[in-house]
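Field reference: sequence -> structure
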Amino acid sequence: MIYVLVEGLDDQMAVPRLAERESLQVRCISMNGKSNIVRRKQGFEDTVRRQHAIGGRAFVVLMDGDVTYPPYQTLAEERQDMALRVESLAAELGIPIQVCWSVLELESWLIAGLERRATYCGLRNVGRVPTNTESTPQDPKRWLADHLHGDYRPRIAECLAGSIEMQQAKRRNQSLQLFLAALRQVAGSETTP
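Structure field:
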């Protein structure tokens, strides 16, 4: 089983559906915010160590790529240092760990897979969907909320993750491709002695 540390409940509900559509099984752990993942003390490292102690053997850390929190000042700094932190922890525990970013947010992946005129999962007629959801819409959660009959909730994210056109989503958002590739790599490493 691959454990995926995610920022919140939306991701916790959507990521397993996306993974199962690619024949991968994951269990998500909500970190209740990106700041809880990146912080130096009691950040993702402590969670991975606890999960490893009770049997977890493969991990992916998934974060949104739109904003950052201390100790980082920029996303570039975050990407560089998080890769080093993950590499260090993987060496310490002797297990596969990857870090990934959803660009701009996980909702960008969901938007990328929407079909023109989609009305499933509470959507109003969607209309034209951006061809590169890593750059637009700038606020993916707001975009989805504006295209729903009701409020955007975690159940909507889960429904969309099970309903979107995956090949189109991967074409329109490279970070989704990278995340799925990381899951496959970790899954392969998990079974290798």
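Note: The chain has two domains: 2-104+173-191, 106-170.
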